[in-house]
Structure to design on (353 residues):
C-alpha cells in the first residue's frame, strides 16, 4: 500500500494522497457554498493526515488562495460580490495577517504552536456554532410570534440584530456600500477585518470562518453577498499569507497543487449551489459543518493526550474526511435538485406561452 503515500519534499513527511484529493474536492464544494476558504477544515485535516502544524497552516494558505480566486470569479457573475466593501476590509486584513504569522513563528520557537492552535480552534468553532444556532433559534421565535399575531415575518429579518446597532455608530468616514445596500462607518469593516486577518495568520484560515458570519451579524450584509465578498477577501488574504509562510519555508507546494486539482472542481459546484439555497438554509448547514470540524479537532487532541491509543488518530482522519464528504454530497444534491426545478419551471413557462 506504499503507492497510496506521497513523499513531501519540503516538510519531509509521507502523506496519504487520496486524502488530499478528497479534502481538496470537499473543501472546494464547501468553500464555494459558504463563502469560506475552507481552511478551518483543511488546516486540522492536513495536521491529522501527518503535516506538522506550521506546514499545515502554510500549505493550506496556498491551496486556499487559488481556490478562492476561482470561486470569487464565479460569484462575481452571480452579482454576489461587493468589491468596494472587500477592498475597504483589505486594509485591516493585511496588517492582521502579518501579526498572526509573527505569533505562529514565536509559538513555534517555544514548541507550543500545535497545542495553542488546536485550543484556539476549539474556542473559535464552539463560538461560531453557538452564534449560528442561537441566531436561527431567535429567528424561529420571531417567526412564531409573528404567526401568532396573524402576520408574516419579513424575509430579510434576522435573529441577532447586532448589525443595526453597530451601523448606528457614525464615526467618520461614513460609507454607503451600494451592492450590499448598507451604510456604516468605514472603521467597522476595517476593525473586523484586522481581527479576522490576525486569526487567519494564526490558524491558517482565510478569515472566512469569522468574516462571513461577521459580515452578516456585525456589518449587516445579506447572506449571499457576504458569501461572495468574503471569498474575495479570502483570496487576497490567502495570497498574502502564502507569501508570508513561503518566506518562512513552511509551504508544501506539492500538497497544495494536489488539493487544488480537486478544489477547482468542487468550487464550481459549491458556488452554483448558492443560487438554489439562500439565507438561513446556508447558515444552518454552516453550523453543522462547524460542529463536524470541532469533533475532528477534539479527537486529535485526545490522541495527543493518549499517544498509546492509535485508533483515535485513525478515527480523527475518518471523521474529518467523512464529514467533509457528507456535507459536500448534500450541497451537490441541493444543486442538482435546484437545477432540475429551475429547468422544469422554464419548460412549464414555455409550454404556457
Amino acid at each position: 500500500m506504499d503507492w497510496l503515500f506521497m513523499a513531501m519534499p519540503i516538510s519531509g513527511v509521507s502523506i496519504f494522497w487520496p486524502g488530499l484529493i478528497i479534502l481538496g474536492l470537499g473543501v472546494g464544494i464547501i468553500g464555494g457554498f459558504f463563502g469560506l476558504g475552507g481552511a478551518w477544515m483543511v488546516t486540522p485535516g492536513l495536521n491529522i493526515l501527518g503535516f506538522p502544524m506550521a506546514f499545515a497552516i502554510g500549505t493550506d494558505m496556498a491551496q486556499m488562495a487559488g481556490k478562492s480566486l476561482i470561486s470569487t470569479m464565479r460569484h462575481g457573475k452571480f452579482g454576489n460580490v461587493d468589491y468596494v466593501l472587500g477592498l475597504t476590509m483589505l486594509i485591516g486584513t493585511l496588517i492582521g495577517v502579518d501579526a498572526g504569522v509573527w505569533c505562529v513563528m514565536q509559538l513555534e520557537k517555544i514548541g507550543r504552536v500545535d497545542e495553542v492552535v488546536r485550543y484556539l480552534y476549539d474556542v473559535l468553532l464552539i463560538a461560531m456554532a453557538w452564534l449560528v444556532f442561537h441566531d436561527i433559534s431567535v429567528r424561529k421565535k420571531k417567526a412564531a410570534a409573528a404567526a401568532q399575531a396573524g402576520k408574516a415575518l419579513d424575509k430579510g429579518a434576522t435573529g441577532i440584530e447586532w448589525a443595526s446597532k453597530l451601523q448606528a455608530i457614525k464615526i467618520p468616514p461614513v460609507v454607503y456600500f451600494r451592492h450590499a445596500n448598507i451604510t456604516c462607518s468605514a472603521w467597522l469593516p476595517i476593525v473586523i477585518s484586522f481581527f479576522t486577518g490576525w486569526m487567519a495568520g494564526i490558524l491558517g484560515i482565510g478569515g472566512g470562518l469569522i468574516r462571513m458570519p461577521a459580515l452578516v451579524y456585525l456589518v449587516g450584509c445579506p447572506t449571499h453577498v457576504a458569501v461572495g465578498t468574503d471569498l474575495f477577501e479570502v483570496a487576497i488574504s490567502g495570497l498574502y499569507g502564502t507569501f508570508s509562510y513561503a518566506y518562512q519555508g513552511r509551504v508544501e507546494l506539492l500538497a497544495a497543487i494536489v488539493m487544488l486539482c480537486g478544489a477547482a472542481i468542487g468550487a464550481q459546484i459549491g458556488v452554483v449551489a448558492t443560487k438554489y439555497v439562500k439565507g438561513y438554509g446556508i447558515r444552518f448547514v454552516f453550523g453543522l459543518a462547524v460542529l463536524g470540524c470541532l469533533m475532528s479537532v477534539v479527537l486529535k487532541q485526545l490522541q495527543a493526550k493518549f499517544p498509546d491509543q492509535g485508533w483515535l488518530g485513525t478515527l480523527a482522519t475518518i471523521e474529518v474526511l467523512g464529514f467533509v464528504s457528507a456535507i459536500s454530497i448534500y450541497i451537490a444534491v441541493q444543486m442538482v435538485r435546484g437545477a432540475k426545478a429551475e429547468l422544469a419551471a422554464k419548460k412549464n413557462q414555455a409550454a404556457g406561452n
